[in-house]
Design brief:
A hairpin with a 3-residue loop joins strand 14 (299-302) and strand 15 (306-308). The chain has a 6-stranded antiparallel β-sheet with strand order 5-7-6-8-10-9. It has helices at 29-33, 55-58, 65-75, 82-89, 117-129, 132-135, 183-196, 237-241, 257-267, 271-288, 342-352, 356-372, 374-377, 381-394; strands spanning 2-8, 11-19, 22-27, 97-100, 112-114, 149-155, 158-162, 171-174, 204-209, 212-218, 222-225, 228-231, 233-236, 299-302, 306-308, 326-331, 334-336. Helix 9 packs antiparallel against helix 10 (271-288) and helix 10 (271-288) packs across helix 12. It contains 14 helices and 17 strands. The N and C termini lie far apart (61 Å). It is globular, with a radius of gyration of 21 Å. The mean pLDDT is 90. It has 399 residues and is an alpha+beta fold. 35% of the residues lie in helices and 22% in strands. It has 3 domains: 2-100, no CATH class; 112-218, no CATH class; 235-394, Phosphatidylinositol 3-kinase Catalytic Subunit, Chain A, Domain 5 (Orthogonal Bundle), CATH 1.10.1070.
Amino acid sequence: MKKLFAFYQQKLVGVLVKGNNGISFTYSKSWLKDADNFALSVNLPLQEVPFEHAESFFANMLPEGETRFLLCKSLGVSEKNDFGLLVELGGEIAGAITLQTHSEPPIERALVRDLNHDELEELIAQAMQVPYKTIDPKMRLSLAGAQNKLPIIYVSGQFSLPLSSDVPTTHIIKFANPHFTDLVMNEYTVMRLAQAVGLNVPEVAVLTIDGIDHLVVTRYDRLQTSAGWERLHQEDFCQALGVLHHNKYESEGGPSLAQCVSLIREHSTQPAADILQLVRWVLFNLIIGNHDAHGKNIAFLYSPKCVLAPFYDLISTQCYPGLSRKLSMKVGGENRINWLQVRHFERLSAEIGVKHILIKKEFRRLVQAIDENVDLVNEFEPLKQVINNNLKYLESRLR
């Protein structure tokens, strides 16, 4: 029977077991008795009874798409073998826990390897071709999502790699995309615009290596203290609702906006503020033409109280003609921006329990804020065109 042990710092949280019917998880008795304990997920409340099917939480920590395919191919692991990938990658994952193959607490060694410019350039060049795990088998790092990216330490202008699981990474390098050459500038512009108009988002920067731009994102699930960097626990809304990553779109059984608001209302310690942020996120995505905003792009952050995490992976997919024009989450039953009518926003209001007048007010506020930041919008011409087109349509529906 194969096992993995989940730790929070030096404390054993619980045990994962690979069985014939999937992955089970059981909290340790010591964790249940700990005065500072917390549940790993809304979907995994603290209890002594094992969870027979815990895949929706743990498998959602793993890469998807082509990155997953390449990792599995290089590691000799089946693409459907979530447990096998967790064994290989679970040393540094989203949130605060680490996964070990042994039951002893992680050894505190704080080992890192500083990278000079040439080493960083070589690492990125290699990682753009094959996932980082295939470059250095000792690295046990995992980030969810389909895009190939690298968790890294970036402190005082120095990039470093962790060589022991007790060292949290602080940033994420999202590599240039060979299929969409301006994707980095797209996300860089959109994320800064989001911050400027009132959305809670992490800091972003552009890293240019050998003439190629990459995006550096500050990890929101990390906290710098006088003693160093600490991991903060988090879970995305697919994890919270028990939805596997391949069902993340609403049309495939993934989270709806109504379900997301219900989660916030039930679990957030500041539900009114967080629901307003989510409404702002929905409207902002419509304005910029982000059709790929799904339940894995929304998360709870436990720091230690449960709040809505900063938004991430904000891009304008509408800038690319070949990508789907259907929204990942419907707005009042409609998943096409240019088919939205007043009735759809009224239905959305009823579904999420927010007054229609508040949605209209927030839309007008966003429009004004975007107008005040037009210089930022102008930095990326395709985004400017999308926003202008979408606003012409949406303003007549949300006046």
